[in-house]
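Deliverable D5.2: sample structural annotation.
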Amino acid sequence: MTRLLISSGKGPAETRLAVGHILRLMAGSAVEVVTGKADKYGPASAIVTLPTAAAARWRGTILWRCQSPLRPQHKRKNWFVGVFALAELQKQDQRLHPKELRFERFRAGGPGGQHQNTTDSAVRVVHLPSGLVAISRDQRSQHRNKAKALARLETMLALAQIEADADMLKRLNQLHQTLARGAPTRIFTGIRFKEQL
């Protein structure tokens, strides 16, 4: 399966109509469709999941050659939409799996009483896939420190996911800006959006 971004770039309303036409044509083979913000003309962008062979036919610049249905007196007749392959999402599973964790006990040291200074009550937990490390040493009980370190690690993983999502959004925005208006891979014509062969 391949994920595709369908983008009208920053084009006019006619390009959003074209995105809608493309989504309708893909509807039979698309496994998943997630549309971005839409107005009465349609979405400016969408992400679809298609079988890889079907996705390969759509990649590139799509040209819709048609007199504007919204502005009949407008001279422009070429409306462009970009279709880009997206890398697979590296979604973090927020559940912590015991096999992916390494626990280390050590002496806490510092203030906290004689018990804390003489026993290995502090806990360091390492998330092996990401390399993230969380430490808790402020509880007198090793059990409590372990629970606190795990809670910190979960927060760190959630933050890493937010940062990864922000990076993905940044890359998507860059793709929106790279829509090439020329050398289309497929051409559709007329108000009925028929493919020109």
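Annotation notes: The first strand starts at residue 2 and ends at 7. Helices lie at 13-26, 52-58, 114-118, 142-177.
The annotation will be released with the project's public dataset once the embargo ends.
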